[in-house]
Amino acid sequence: MSVVFSIRNKKSMFGYQKVMPAKDVLNLVEGVLTYSFEEAMLGRSLKDFPAMMCIRYGKSCLPIILRYLDQEHAYQFILADFATLEDWRLILEWLSALARQLGNEIHDNLGTSYDADSIFSFDYENYLLKNLQNLEKDPDLHQYQLQGFAHPVILDRELLRKILDSAQPLEEFSQVVKKVQYSSAFFSQVRFYRQNETGGIIGSYSLTEDTDTVLPRVPFVPAEFVEKVNMDEVIDWKVNLVEITGNPDMPESYKPVGAVNLEALLNALESSEFELLDANQIEIKKLSKERLLQLAQL
Questions:
Q1: Residue numbers of the domain that contains 224
Q2: pTM for the whole thing?
């Protein structure tokens, strides 16, 4: 679910004024950028783009979706329900700036209208808190995935309870999401291949010497593979261990030293060698060649 805000374009003598160039809309507030299109394209009218994913790098976690709706003659902003505090502050600042420039009201999909000043009365803190509370109470909740601008974030009931029981739950939630988005670790992506001997499918991740790496505690089939890979067909989840034998900038310096079961690997790690990022993602700290070779014997 998302909150949708719209601001009608300014009227002119012959209908509506020309739709602003995308870069002018982005420049209404400091530090906003889009990662959907090249900067060289942003001089074109916003209506020429289907939608833009926008952030303020260093602060944003979930993207704001920006687009122009020709049929409604309106600029539209969309933000996911579980956006962080910084995401909410940015969208309100941005809406206020555009509403002031166009001289028109802001309307949301919850049935409320605002002007450039009253938009800051939107009670996003209460809105976010209720969403977190409702998610935690959902009897069908197993894991819930938020899609950040850089990485997904996994929530479960245990993590939600920890967040809601903290002294400042909204700040705690925002920090969890932000930590995942701005992690400098390598997020290992699963690859699948079919084993010739059994016909079963192997899910394979990688862990490289001297590289902070994020792996799942409980592996799963990502959405982009669900039409090709049935979870029931996966007979094992492996981690390929890779050493660096020379210049790390040269592909030929990376050599496999073994493949181990994912669960066995995680169970063999010392507590100082990893950190939990969310309900399912674990960041493994840089491991030496010696430690990697030791783990290869599992």
A1: 186-296
A2: 0.91
